[in-house]
Amino acid sequence: MLTAQAYAFDPFTITEIKAEGLQRLEIGTVLTYLPLAVGDEANTATTRQAIRSLYASGLFQDVKVERDGSALIVHLKERPAISSFKIEGNDKVGGDELDESLKNLGLADGELFRRDLLDQVEQELRRQYYSNGYYDVAIDSKVTEEPNNRVSLNIKVTEGRVTKITDINILGNTVFNDQELIDQFELRSTNWMPFQRSDRYSKQKLVGDLEKLQSYYQDRGYLKFNVDSVQVALTPDKESIYVTVNVTEGDVYTVKDHRFSGETILNDAFLEALTTTRSGERFSRKEATATADRIEAALSDVGYAFAEVTPLPELDEDGKQVSINYFIKPGKRAYVRRINFVGNTGTNDETLRREMRQLEAAPFSKSAVERSRVRLARLPFIEEAEVDTRPVPGSDDLVDVQFKVKERPPGSVQFGVGYSGAQGFLITGQVTHTNFLGSGNRINASVENNTVTRSINLGWTDPYFTEDGISQTVSLSYRESESVIRYSSGFNSNILGANLIYGIPLSEYVALRAGVGVEEVALETFPASTSDEVLDFVVRNGTRFATYQIRTGISYDSRNRTFFATRGASHSLNADIAIPGSDIEYFNLSYRSQAYIPLPFKFTAELTGSVGYVDGYGSDSDVPPYENFFAGGPRTVRGFRDGSLGPLDTPFGNPYGGKLRTTAQAELIIPLPIESDGKSTRMSAFFDIGNVFAEPGDFAAGDLRQSAGLAFSWFTPFLGLLDLSYAYPLNSVASDRTDRFQITFGSGF
Fold it and tell me: Which SS3 state, helix, strand or coil, does residue 213 take?
């Protein structure tokens, strides 16, 4: 019990101040809170004020003031310190949220104890249990006194059983049936589904559900829909909750017209193009709000960063119509003062700054800022990027833009093993750095040895070889192969190559590929095991030849991420031509398209299609066997063995490849509860179709192989990209080589 006492005495001048009863605190601490000092006059009023000040410090639970001659004596009883604090029985509620709540309340070891603080803790526990559906919870607190003016606190929780929603009733609805409206709710009554959590009552969730209900009606013309009352009934045994919602639907309102008021800034024709609330249609709050958002975004793109557009409905009760007045308040035009980067510990500021489409000292543009963020997120050494726009203090027309980035490890020195369905077990050694010295340049050197291939590859890519963003890639490679794929047609190949490729941006999303390449090739055949097709090629062309190639192409890429994208598209058309003067003259054309379409409930559709065509030209129309197309496996048609589809050689019946390949993949990407953003894991259900044909004229839709199944991908810390798939071939024939379960790892480095 808190007590205080100040004796009435005649005023006197203080010559000394004494504090009695202190255990942990020093006299200096008392003097800090005491509004009296030596030389001051003490009287009834000033001593009462002193008592109030000492209590207000929160350090004492009892204060008395006395006089001893000209000395002021302050008798104090300190609040006890919490020596230990423990909660028992809280299996269902706890963790970071509870710890943070208790910390904010001031309950922790070493803090001073107050009885009202313990009451607040009990209330906070009940609040968290109620929000999780436990209304039968019992909380018993025990305070134990200990030596040296300390106390230990023990809170015992008896959780009881979870209280579940037995029924949700909506009364007053005639236009939409109960189930249609309840489908809008996050809360649901108890059903047969195991591990159901939506049947746990939460006041916050109910408020959100009522807002969804109101939006559902108002988006369909019922402008004056109203929730009249809500009854939440808890049964005496605290095991069931009944929720009853009483509503008034009102009449349907249609759009009469719309207009723009305030400082419109933009011309009316442009504003009309952004408007989707049309005369004669049912009023929709969602469409009116979306129109306002689009106008705000358009204004922000011309510098009005803080524009506000408010759709104001003006009712015609007689005709049940709505005139929408879009009131535009653009504010002052804003300019970007500074662009700052946070989190780039290993990346140079300039490396990030060159990706900016929003410039300092330029008018603020929301779309340019967002595009800058996406460009940062697409860098291979950046895992994610966030942006924050902040007004400059003391100015109404300046903003600072801050990008917060999270870097990936940009470099690795690796030696390891992997597995690929096309190449068997791999032994690899590789040095890769995607952000060399923080410059954004990529270097790589790799050595590979597997059952069919031995290779060395060296490469250097400068994404900003020029200030205009032209990239340059220089690569050297040497490859010894016992066959093109695992199913040998009986020849070995040694290929030494070099390439110089430039990437030339034509627009924000379009880039041109231009470069040259040279290859020195040596083939080795074996009379007893080489296929007739390879022997015929060698007879006509020999076993050693050089090719000089022009490498060209054009690409479009609007994906939000280069790996595991969720929206956008990419298209690439490439042409590699062995020019006249080469020992073999041929060309290779390829087109690949990908599209990512966001779907409801965080699902994503991924559509991929590709066509490849290779052929000779001039007097000799031969195509080198190692340039043939192959299909089957994880990247083309899953469920069929790698490279096994298409024409077979003679007389061994092994896959030989062909001049034309066409494939398509449709995937439904399924959100995983283990990772909400899907940046490192992905699961999908897929349908694949495709095949390879010896000549374009051989194409027949009936020969396209099809499969369906499930796939899982994961960027592992040690193995790189891990791909797993299980596919069921839908129209395989007896000669096909199927492989339902396929795994690839190690190739993601």
Answer: helix
CATH code, residues 341-407: 3.10.20.310
- Please give the Cα distance from 594 to 607 (Å, whole number): 6
Distance (Å, whole) CA 170 – CA 166: 14
- What distance in Å separates the CA atoms of residue 359 and residue 566, rounded to the nearest whole number? 27
From residue 13, give the alpha-carbon distance in Å to each of 10, 43, 67, 422.
10, 9, 11, 98
Q: Which residues of the chain are in CATH 3.10.20.310 domains?
A: 3-78, 81-158, 164-248, 254-329, 341-407
- Give the max Cα distance, the chain: 127
Task: Tell me the C-alpha to C-alpha distance, in Å, between residue 43 and each of 9, 49, 76.
Answer: 7, 10, 19
Average the pLDDT over each of 163-177, 184-198, 271-285 and give the range with the smallest value.
184-198
Flag whether pLDDT at 311 surpasses 90. yes
Backbone dihedral angles phi then psi of residue 143, each to the nearest 5 degrees: -110, 120
Tell me the pairing of strands 3-6 and 60-68: parallel
Closest CA to 654 of 645, 663, 662: 645
C-alpha distances (whole Å) from 125 to each of 93, 181, 232 are 8, 33, 21
Question: The tokens of 86 are what?
Answer: 């423990």
CB atoms within 10 A of CB 4: 14
Q: Which pLDDT does position 1 carry in this prediction?
A: 39
Q: Does domain 254-329 have CATH number 3.30.450.20?
A: no
pTM for the whole structure: 0.66
Q: Which fold has domain 411-744?
A: Porin (2.40.160)
pLDDT at 4 over 60: no
Q: Quick one: tokens of 103?
A: 């910390």
Q: Provide the sign of the torsion angle of the four alpha carbons 358, 362, 366, 367, taken in this order.
A: negative
In whole angstroms, give the CA distance from residue 447 to residue 458. 9
pLDDT, tens digit, 9 for 90 and up, residues 468-514: 899 999 999 998 887 655 456 678 889 999 999 999 999 999 999 99
The answer for residues whose C-beta is within 8 angstroms of residue 405's C-beta and 6 or more apart is 341, 342, 343, 344, 347, 352, 376, 382, 384, 385, 386
Tell whether domain 81-158 is in CATH 3.20.20.370: no
Query: Contact 551/514 with Cβ under 8 angstroms?
Result: yes
Distance CA 339, CA 568 (A): 26
DSSP labels, 144-195: EEETTTEEEEEEEEE--PPPEEEEEEEES--SS-HHHHHTT-S-----S-TT
Report the CATH fold assignment for 164-248: Ubiquitin-like (UB roll) (3.10.20)
In terms of average pLDDT, the best of 56-65, 228-237, 406-415, 549-558 is 549-558
Q: Give the DSSP H/E element, type plus range, for residue 116.
A: helix 115-131
Strands (E), 655-734: 660-670, 681-693, 705-716, 720-729
Whether the CB-CB separation of 311 and 324 falls below 8 Å is answered with yes
Average pLDDT, the chain: 86
Is residue 575 within 8 A of residue 627, CB to CB? The reply is no
Task: Give the angle subtended at the CA of 693 by the CAs of 688 and 697, to the nearest 5°.
Answer: 120
Whether cis (ω within 30° of 0) applies to the bond prior to 651 is: yes
For residue 304 the two structure tokens come to: 């009005």
Place of tokens 């690569």: 475
Mean pLDDT of 61-67: 86
For residue 391, the surrounding DSSP H or E stretch is strand 382-391
Which one, of 429, 431, 426, lies nearest residue 415 by Cα? 429
- The CATH fold of domain 3-78: Ubiquitin-like (UB roll) (3.10.20)
CA–CA dist 745, 749 (Å, integer): 9
